[in-house]
Amino acid sequence: MNGQNVDITELNERIKRESQFVENLKSEMHKVIVGQRRVIERIIIGLLADGHILLEGVPGIAKTLMIRTLADCIDVDFKRIQFTPDLLPADITGTLIFNQKTGEFYANKGPIFSNFVLADEINRAPAKVQSALLEAMQERQVTIGETTYKIPVPFMVLATENPIEQQGTYPLPEAQVDRFMLKVMVDYPRREEERAIMELHTKIHPPIAQKVVSPEQILKAREVVRDVYVDEKIENYILDIVFATRYPEQFGIEDLKPLIAWGASPRATMYLRIAAQSHAFLEHRGYVTPEDVRAIAIDVLRHRVIITYEAEAEEKNSEDIVRAIMAKVEVP
Q1: Structural domain boundaries in the chain
Q2: What gap in Å lies between CA 112 and CA 14, rounded to an integer?
Q3: 228-328 CATH choice from 1.10.8.80, 3.40.570.10, 3.30.450.40, 3.40.50.300
Q4: 328 and 253 in contact (C-beta within 8 Å)?
Q5: How many C-beta neighbours within 10 Å does residue 276 have?
Q6: Could you give the CA distance from residue 61 to residue 73 in angstroms, rounded to a whole number?
Q7: H-run or E-run covering 118
Q8: Which of 116, 127, 191, 332 has the most CB within a 10 Å radius?
């Protein structure tokens, strides 16, 4: 949107109206999920921005439950794929089956043909299987045999990783990781939250989320999110953050240069912009502020900045580097 042609007051009122359903969605999810407000917000941001999400956290902290609850709230198809070392690509995409009566092959579509797909413990399957998700995630289509099939909308892949066990796991290829818009770290609940979880989910009939939003509302909201105004100064701020991951010496942070093997890709720039717009939408605001960018930047960049052995020797991870960049890059 061109700032000269935008009536910010009118846009603000429109976004305020159009984004009201978000409160109902969050409220319904919190009937089932105790705490994890930041994670739930990130999942909704991914949904609004038409992006995919990688969740990392120890087992048993409601990663799967969050995704299933979101699907219940929108009443869309949900499929869970447990990734294992013996999984085959066809177990995800589907395969051709011969019909003896007609003498023809027909496509038996796999679980990828759902609105929400949970790739549970995605790093437990080898790269060949992980790559079965690539076409679906990027092109929103799957090729079985010689025919290409569209995937239903809205469509989102949510993958989980277990950071504890490394035996029998396969690191995700960089091309695969880059297709995830956000990488969100899921932490343990606080003590009072865990008490509430204990009381809520040990009942005979634990709560189940009800439909509060339609798929059509989500698709419409995706269009509205892209109308959220982004000033040129904010766009330059986004570019500065991403370029600082590639050329830190140009931003007065030369000490980071030996710690970064590869900076963030152009996807990071696009995702950071739309994620900031989605964050503003969640705040019922028609324009993006630097705080929106800063709130979501680490989740967009933590899996895109590749560190060197030197950084590992200094016990620095990619998140530390992104935080150092955020501290140094000038805020408009």
Answers
A1: 20-219, 228-328
A2: 35
A3: 1.10.8.80
A4: yes
A5: 29
A6: 20
A7: strand 116-120
A8: 116
> Closest Cα partner for 115 from 16, 227, 228, 211?
211
**SS3 breakdown of the chain: % helix, strand, coil, rounded to 5?**
50, 15, 35
Structure tokens at 22: 């978000």
Residue 256 gets which letter from DSSP?
G
Determine which helix (DSSP H) or strand (DSSP E) holds 261, and give its type and residue range: strand 260-262
Q: How many C-beta neighbours within 10 Å does residue 106 have?
A: 12
Buried b or exposed e, range 53-81, using 16+ CB within 10 angstroms: bbbbbeeebbbbbbbbbbbbbbebebbbb
Evaluate whether the domain defined by 20-219 bears CATH number 3.40.50.300: yes
Which helix (H) or strand (E) segment is 109 a member of? strand 104-109
Read off the tokens for 303: 């899996």
- In three-state secondary structure terms, 131 is helix
